[in-house]
Structures are given as structure tokens and as C-alpha cells.
Amino acid sequence: MSIRVGIVGISGFGGGEALRLIAGHPSFELVYAAGEGSAGSRLADRFPGIPPRLAGLVIQKWAPAALPPLDLLFASLPTGASAEGLARVAGSVKIVDIGGDHRYAEGWTYGLADVWPDEITGQTRIANPGCFPAATLTALAPLLADRLIEPGNIIIDAKTGISGAGRGGADSRFGYAESNENLLPYGLLKHTHMPEMARTIERLGGGSAAGLVFTPHLVPMTRGVLATIYCRGSATTDQCLDSARRFYAGRAFIRVTDKPPQTKWATGSNLAFVSYAADPARRLVIAMGVVDNLGKGAAGQAVQNANLICGLPETAGLEGAPVWP
Amino acid sequence: MSIRVGIVGISGFGGGEALRLIAGHPSFELVYAAGEGSAGSRLADRFPGIPPRLAGLVIQKWAPAALPPLDLLFASLPTGASAEGLARVAGSVKIVDIGGDHRYAEGWTYGLADVWPDEITGQTRIANPGCFPAATLTALAPLLADRLIEPGNIIIDAKTGISGAGRGGADSRFGYAESNENLLPYGLLKHTHMPEMARTIERLGGGSAAGLVFTPHLVPMTRGVLATIYCRGSATTDQCLDSARRFYAGRAFIRVTDKPPQTKWATGSNLAFVSYAADPARRLVIAMGVVDNLGKGAAGQAVQNANLICGLPETAGLEGAPVWP
Amino acid sequence: MSIRVGIVGISGFGGGEALRLIAGHPSFELVYAAGEGSAGSRLADRFPGIPPRLAGLVIQKWAPAALPPLDLLFASLPTGASAEGLARVAGSVKIVDIGGDHRYAEGWTYGLADVWPDEITGQTRIANPGCFPAATLTALAPLLADRLIEPGNIIIDAKTGISGAGRGGADSRFGYAESNENLLPYGLLKHTHMPEMARTIERLGGGSAAGLVFTPHLVPMTRGVLATIYCRGSATTDQCLDSARRFYAGRAFIRVTDKPPQTKWATGSNLAFVSYAADPARRLVIAMGVVDNLGKGAAGQAVQNANLICGLPETAGLEGAPVWP
Amino acid sequence: MSIRVGIVGISGFGGGEALRLIAGHPSFELVYAAGEGSAGSRLADRFPGIPPRLAGLVIQKWAPAALPPLDLLFASLPTGASAEGLARVAGSVKIVDIGGDHRYAEGWTYGLADVWPDEITGQTRIANPGCFPAATLTALAPLLADRLIEPGNIIIDAKTGISGAGRGGADSRFGYAESNENLLPYGLLKHTHMPEMARTIERLGGGSAAGLVFTPHLVPMTRGVLATIYCRGSATTDQCLDSARRFYAGRAFIRVTDKPPQTKWATGSNLAFVSYAADPARRLVIAMGVVDNLGKGAAGQAVQNANLICGLPETAGLEGAPVWP
Questions:
Q1: Pathway involvement (chains A, B, C, D) (predicted)?
Q2: For residue A83, pLDDT beyond 60
């Protein structure tokens, strides 16, 4: 039985990756696609490699009132742009919101799928985590759950590829010539992903995350997020690795590694890689998390969440190994 | 029923991509992997994102005498390194040779799968085309078959990403710092891919290809091949496009486009994109072909060939849409 | 004695590179800078590494009537945007136009500085060659002058880094995520650089260039142009190299090499590298030219032209060796 | 009067950049070059853009006993390879050691040129700082000197382009295909640059640096180092910026910026950019330092040190503005 699926926001990178994953999903049938910048085009005009059965689907302008009958809707809109429209359709369709408007919002479940799958199953409105939170929280969750680190004393130095920041036409900062061979910190002390990380750390760790420090960096690569996280705690490296192995035992998408993880290990997949290095003598624990910002950091986790709320196997459509090199 | 599969040459990029495709293939079960540089490692040590069911497979040193019972063997060895070993096992296992040693060799079928699928079906030893020939010949085949261009007057200006040339440890020319922001022609007037292109052009085009000119270039990107091919003929652009659309009607992996093709359209897939621009007043036809050098240019076409010789659907394991951006 | 210099179009890449070269020039004093996108900013706000003595210069909106007294003006405006404004100031200031509006225009000298330096000396209005012509014509000039190739039978397959195409904010095609790992042909059979190349080939080669074919490609790198040029002629490789060595004897910025040239050899410099590979049996000559599209392909050659028309040593301010890697 | 200069280690990236800067230096005359991998070649064979006056210099195998009469020697050898040889020549020639063997060694002055220029003037043996220390210590020095941060509580999250790690032929980790689109931490809790940073922090800051944490990362770009440094202190952002502006008043190569610095601002130059963001309520100070790892992080600072010990203007040969984009 196929599930009728729509995507809103297909002009963006997150929406495009959702399209790729839905196109290869065994139970999803794409019947609706909307996008601001590409409305009126056929899918094949925007995505030349799309399978022929989807090539002729015409991209619509997003209009909640004109939504066809759907079982499931993926939304991937800029922050601030999704709340009103999704409110109008939320009663009639399951929604996974890849955008940022509903994280920890009333009536929505925060979809940190590898940590809280049971909370997600059976829900109808999922707010997908941001890309930085996906990398960071996946690495921290076991340590927080096992009380190996202090929730109030966490410094996140995060790095993202440029598809995590936006599209080239929007801003000359994302132009190739400007971005290539360039590395920079941005949004110091005030990034929009801070609140969802603090909230989640508090839920996981049993204490205030008021001391949280988060510094994102833009790295000259297309995809990938690495979070290098400096924590206080007395655990050894092995205790941290064991904690993560127990916490994620049987989970399909998490790889606990004893080598520092590399972003390219995850490219094109829904995998997250976590590792740890600790120095108990200095009460230092370094946690590291790697995801593809468009995979586990956006559309991959969104499909995982959709599988959970649709009663499908969690890994459906997500089994592809990463593309390397 | 699953088909028992082995890979020889898993340390190279072509072998690694074969592994990725085999891991996702519905009918192939990987039971053997051999590689010079990685013998003794578990697959997961070399490919951290490999599915857990394959993680523990130990990479062997390639030894024809010790080959376990297999139905199908993919070989991806450096030029000159495969002939002897494969000769010893060729009687007992179907082989797709991704390497260059058996192209147009006695007893081997040249596996240009989108052009001559019927010749491949039922064979047991397939010599997979090189990455430059895959891009070039796919673009030229319809024009040659329809006699729209002269086989004796073809100039191929080809460009490849660096994974098409070799691995970093082998040669400082392929180092990141040396290669990034660098573009160069190489192998002028004497590249190893010349003979298989000339032979195929002659088979397709009904005349000598003695005038063939081929200039490869190294481009600072990981994957992708573009061949820009200058031909003599009086056809219009539309006639060329029509020729290709007819020639490839119903073929799953070829996309005929009226816009110039881009290498990133094909990344991670087995697709080939072809397009044409012609100026009949000057008897000029420009043919363009794009492939992923590790996809249609190596492991993708190899799996397609394997499907054909194993009696499977041609697209099995190859349906994934390209990874973009 | 210092020469009072202005730049119009400092927001673009060509204007920015002109600024860098002028800042390091022993005889030029920058007293005026205008730019559409950056008017009102101090130079240091846009160019954080600019020497302190220039940091406070405020970028103006380009207004010909308000031009301060200058000896020399560099203009680097989009095609179509410079003609009117420059006409109003051309009587009172020497001009080097890096933009495309005055190439082979009435009253302007085409500034192919390494080929025709004597024509440029003493002039007041110089139209600087485009980046593709700079690479192409530098490689072809000796062969045409020595009648080693046919002017009517030339195919130019040219490749440029993305700074040669435009800035990121202008067009999502030039975005990092969209452009990285992507290679494409564009502007087939109709690029704006065609006429100046045809005109120059005819001047140099004694015959019609009506058969000229030119295909530009966009390569994922910031800087660099390579032209690979397919010509008809019976010369040997050595004859071509000798022709170029004689033609450019004593010229400071041309390097004739027997290895295929690489774009990174030229980065940040005003150098051009030319090489040749020929197969007399097939009457084939391949000429190759490499420049930095912002150096010899734009601002570097502009400063060279400015030196010539100001009576300065041709190499003033241009002695810096390329930046490698 | 020209100073006779030699370079040992010209095959490496640091030695190559020293060559570029020496070639453009008004008082240095290169008379000797030695390099393991390139001995026997002419300079022009390895550095095609080198000025003609240096093109014919033949690269030697490094042999201390055969060193010609020199005033000044730059050494850029792998760690462990320079001590013995330099000891044999140290009595007869001024030395700047770009390599790591003599930092804080007996008889050598640590050449943090922008911080302690007066200590360097008049010396004869200078140990040039590493690239990570150059970025880190330049950012920290003012805060430590003004006691705005605690020396015992510093976390350095540092990122380098791949030329800072090594050459491609040496290690497949530095290959283009392996490194492109890849970001990784490495050398956790044990990098070789730790001791010189701890020593310098203690000298500057009046207290133990035993708590120092340093995590380097490899970023897919050729050049550039960014250190993001998390410190404890109650200063405001403005107090930090003021501290740095006072500390570096009149220093030619340091730019204090109120925007987060970007690596590309420094490319090809000897500049360092420092900035700060503080949150006194949390006693948090984030210091940021950017250098070109081959400029201020290696050969640029080496030439600056050489200028100081030769009694030349500190900026001689180092005035070139950064290459952007």
C-alpha cells in the first residue's frame, strides 16, 4: 500500500534532498510538490536525474487551501514561513516539518529520532531537529543520560558545509568564489539553534543548560556537519564509548567509533557518527558528532520520523550507504 | 535467490563504489573482498558507513587459488594487474572487469551496456568501459549509428574529477593542496583510453577513426566526467537530439537534454546525460556527455553489466537518484 | 612622482584585483574608488587586508561629473554599463577599460600587451582583452604570425574558474553548493568573447576566422583560465615551441613550457603560460594557454597596459610570483 | 647591499612559500636552495612562475658541509630532521628555522614577531612559531598581557587548510578525492604544537597553562588557519578589542576587527586577524585568530623575523595585500 506524500519547499536544499529520498522510498508515492522559486516547472527541469515516473510532476506554488488529499507532508520552509500554512492543513495530514518553526512548539513532537523513537511513533506532527542539533545532541545524549558530563558546562564548536547555510543566489557570502578557500565563524553568541539544544540537553541531562556556548563555523564544502563539544566530567574515553554503545545498541543509524569521525563518512546517508576523547585528570570530555546536514541533519531524519509515524520500518528508504569519495 | 558476489581491488575508488552498490543491491550477497592496501582490515575499518551485516567481512589479499565459491566477481585492478589472475578464475565465475586489461580482448565482451545490452546478456566475461569512453561513446553512439557525423574527424576534449585519476597516496599530483584550484591537460596524444574509443567508434560509425583526437584534463573536483566532442556533420541540433532520443528510447539510464549537461547532475548515480549543439552552416556538431566516473564510468555500469549477465532487471540496485548538491 | 589613479567598479572581482595591484604599485596612488554595491563603505570594510594608508578611502557611487582630478582611471564595469560614463571623462584622463564595451571600438586600442606593446605605448584609451581571449590569443599569436596554423580552422575549448563568470549574490548558478563539484559547458556557439577573438586572429593570421568555434566551461575553482585549442597545421611540437620562444623573446610575462600548463602556476600573477603538442601526420596542432582570469585575464594586464601608456617600466607592480599552492 | 640567502627544505610547502617571498624581497638574493625531493632540478622546473633571474638555480641535496657562504638561511624541514644539520652551520650564518625542532630550545629565540619584536632584533637563531600557535597566540597575547583571561582555562578549537598538514604524495589522507568535502578532528589531546603554546601562554599570562586543551581540525581548503579559543574572564567584547588595539598599536601585520575573521582575508599575506566576542555574565571570552598557515603561520613570519635580525625594515618584502577571492 503506498502512502501519498507531498513536499513543500522543494526549491531549497532540504526539500530537494527529501525529494531524492522519497523518490527511492518503497512505500511513498510523491503526488504533490510546491516551491517558491520553481513553481510552474516540471520536476525534471529542476532535478534532471529524477526517475522518469516523477519527471512530469509540475511544481506548485504553496497554497494550503489547494492541497490535494495526502497522507503525509514534508515541509522545508525558511524560518518564520511555515507556521501559518501548516496550521491550516495540520488536521488533515501527517506533517514532518524540516524547518525551524515548530521545534518545541505546542502540539508538535521534537523528532530526535535516534534518541526518542518511542515518543515519535503514533504522533502526527513532528518538528525535525536542525542540522547542528542533530550532530550535537546525538553525540551528547548518552553522556547526559548516564550523567557523565555536566549539563551546565558545555561548549559546542560546530562546523557546517555551505548547503547548511543557504543557497547561492540569496547571498554573496555563499557564492563559490567568495566561499571557496574560506572558513569563518558566524552568529557568535546568538545562533537560532541555541534554544532547541538547550531544551534538549536539559531534558536529557537533568540540569540547567544555561551555560551553553555554541559557535557555528562555515566550512568550504557542500555537505557535512561536525560538532566538537567540550564538556566537564570525570569519565574516561572508554566509559564514554561504552555509554554510547549501550545507549544506541540496536539503533540502525548511529555508529560509535573510536577514531575521530569525518564528515565524508556520512555524505548522502542518514548516518550519524559519534566519538569521544577524555582526560579525566583534567575533568575534560570531548564529544564529537558527524552528520550529513541534509541527511540526518534534515531530510534523512525527516524520512526516519515519517517512517515512525506511518508505522513503517524505521529504515525504509534510508538504507543507502554513504557516497565516498 | 541471492547471488554470491566478490570484489577484487576494494582499496581503489572503483572497488569502493562497487562495494557501495553491491551493499544496496537486492540480489547480490557480498561474500568476498580483496584489496592490496587494505588486506587484513574489516570492511567497517575502511568503510565506516557500511551496513552492519557486512561490517565484519575481512578483506583478503587477492589470491586466485583461494577464491571461495562465487557466482560473480567484480575486478577493479590497475591496468596490467588483472589479466593473469582473472584468467585463472574465469572458468568458474562470471566476471565484470572494471579495470582496463580486457577491453576488446579475446573472449571478453565490451560492456557498453546502454548501447549493446543484447550482446552482453548471456555472456560471462565483461570488460567494462573506461570512464572517458563511457561519457564519450554514449554521446556519440546515436550520431554515429545514424551517420550524422564523420567517424574520421572527431576531437574529444574530456575533463575528469580527480578520483578518475588515482588515489592521493600514490602521487603528489593528486594531493589536495596541489590539485585544488588547479586545472590541467595531461597525456596529450597518447592516453590509454584512445584504442577502445577508436574501436567502438569504428564499430558504430562505419568508418575509420584514425583521425581521433583525445585530450583529457584533470579538474579540481572529486567525481564527474564531461566530454565535449567536436564533430563534422550537417545535422541540426534538433536532429541530433532526436537521433539520441530514438536511439535511447526506453533505456533507463540515459537522459537526453536540450541544456548543456552538468557533471553534478550524475553524482552517485549510473545516469549518463547527453546533449548536442550544432551549426550546419559550418558542418559543426558538438556532442556532450556527462557521467559520474565512478558510476556509469566504472562501478555503476559494472553492476548494470552484472545484472545483464545474471538475468536480473537491468536497473536492480541502480535506482538511486543522484546526490545533489 | 606618483600617478593619481581611480577605479570604477571596485565591487566586482576585476575591480578588487585592480585595487590589490594598485595598492602594491610603486608609482600609483589610489585617490578614487567607485562601486555600485559598496558605495559609502570604507575600503577596509570591503577589503580587510588593504594597507592602512588606503583603509579610510570611502567608496563612491560612480558619477562621471564628480570625478576628481586623476591621471589614470581603471574601469571594470559589466558589459553595457561603461560606454556612456567613460565617454564623458575620456578627454581628461587616461583610461584602461577592463570591461567589455570598448574592445575593437572606435578610438580605443585593443590592449593585448604581450603581443602589441608598441601599439599601446603612447595611447590614452585601452580596451583590455577578456579573460578567455587573453589565454587563447597569447597561445595562438606566434603560430598565426609564423603561419603555422590555419586561421579559418580553430576550435577553442576553454575552461574558467567561477570568478570569471560572476559574483555569488547575482545568480544561484555561482553559489558554492551549486557550483562545487560541478563542471559544465555554457554559452555554446554564442559567447560574447567570440568577436574579439575572431578579429584578433584575423589581424594576426592573415585570413578569415569565420570558422572559429569557441566553447567555454565553468570549472569548480575560484581563479584560472585554460584554453585548449585545436588547430590545423603541419608544424611539429618543437616548431611550435620555437615559434613561441622567438615571438616572446624578452617578454617578461610569457612562459613557454614543454609540459602542459596548469592554471595554478599563474594564480595571483600577470603571467601567461603557453605550450603546444602537435601531430604533423594528422595536421593537428594543439595550443594551450593558461592565465589567472583576474591577473593577465583582467587586472594584471590592465596594470601592464597602464604602465605602457604612462611610460613606466612594463613590469612595475607586477613582479610578484604566483601564489602556490 | 644585498643579503645572500639560502633555503633548506624547498620541496615542502613552507620552503616554497619562503622562495616566493625571497624572490620578491628588495634586499635578499637567493643563492642556495636545497630540497630532498627535488634535488638536481632547476628552480623553474619546480616553480614555473619563478622570476627568470632565479630560474636556473639548481636545487641541491642538503649537505651542511657544502653550504656556500651565506648571510642568512631559512630552514623548513620536517620535525626531527633539522637539529643536527643546523647545529653544524649555526656558527657561520643567521638562521630562521621554520620547522619545529628549535622552538623554546637552548640558544634559540622564539620568533613570535608581532608580540616580542625587540627580543628578536639582534639575535642570530630564530625558531619560527608553528601555524596553529601563530593564529592562537596572536589572538590571546593582548588578553593574557592585560590579565583579562585565565591562563589555566583555555580551550583552542583550531582549523587548518590541508597545506598545513602535509603534501599529497606522503599520505592518502591528504589526497584530493579523500580530503575534498571532508572535515575531521585529529591528534586529539596530543598535538605537537601543544608545548610551545603552553610555554608562550605562561610567559604572557603569569600563570600555569596546565589546563590547556587543543583540538586541531583538517578543513578542505589549501591555505588558512582559524583558531576559535574559549577562555574564562569577565571582560566585555569592547574591552577585549581595546586591549588588542592597544597591544598591537603601530604593528604592521595585525588587524583587529569587530567582525569574526575569515581565513581568506589573509591568503598569501603575512597578516593576522584577531577578533573577540565576550559574555561577561557567563565569564566567557571567545578569541579568534586567523592567519595564512604558509604566511604568518610559516614563511611570512620567517621573513619578518629575518628582517628583524638583519636590521631591515620589518615589512620589507611583505607588503603584498592578500589575494582575494
A1: Amino-acid biosynthesis; L-arginine biosynthesis; N(2)-acetyl-L-ornithine from L-glutamate: step 3/4
A2: yes
